[in-house]
Amino acid sequence: MKFLTIVLNFILIITMNTNKIYCQQTRRDLPFQPGEVLKYSVYMNFIKAGEADMRVLSLDTTNSVPVFRISSKTLTRPFFDKIYKIRDILETRVDANQLHSLAFKKDISERKYTKQYNVKFNYFDSLAVSNEKTTKINGPVFDSVAMFYYIRAESLFTGKHIAFDSFDNDKLIPFEVVVRKPKSIKVPAGKFSCYQLEPIKISAKTFKYKNRISIYISNDNRKLPVKIINHTSIGSMVLKLVSY
What we know:
Elements: H1 2-24, E1 37-44, E2 47-62, E3 65-76, H2 78-84, E4 87-95, E5 101-110, E6 113-122, E7 127-130, E8 134-136, H3 146-153, E9 161-168, E10 171-187, E11 190-201, E12 213-218, E13 225-232, E14 235-243
Antiparallel strand pairs: 1-2, 1-14, 2-3, 3-4, 4-5, 5-6, 6-7, 7-8, 9-10, 10-11, 11-12, 12-13, 13-14
């Protein structure tokens, strides 16, 4: 009986260690890993107004699932604060293999508008539970930060369509982007051949957001977001890669 107990304990230890190794495994084909820092200059209507960055902070394990923790920050400079002050801090936790959102929080401060929002995604019960309400979801969703990393993990080629469900502010939005042919893009970090990604719809009923955002992804193994153009109510906000 004592021998049987020792054997069972040994098997249990081996199983636990195997599960631990398995849970910590992540895709080896990803163009980013923990420690990656992308820094940008922010231009508002051609004025260099601030800085932004996106960081892969860590690779953790939550409920035996490997999870990337990723942040994004956008800050305007003091001189531009008098015109339109921005202090936006976002953080997401994504499944390190499938790259869909597991949790998302943001602290937004743009001029007089402020918002603190956090949400967790319960895929077992198909629910998004935020600090404001509970929303039914139908499958994997991607917040505004996770979508960049999901797209970067995709195989890109001219004419490809990438469809996914975006989730923010308790709204589930079907999203689709089309990959345009590569073009040369020059930014402070250098000159890159980039695919241009454009939204072609944000719902089945309307195309009014077409071309509101353009994302230029480098046509190489890193798939860097080299340039991001966002047409806002106050004009164009352009992020240009400075370092990576």
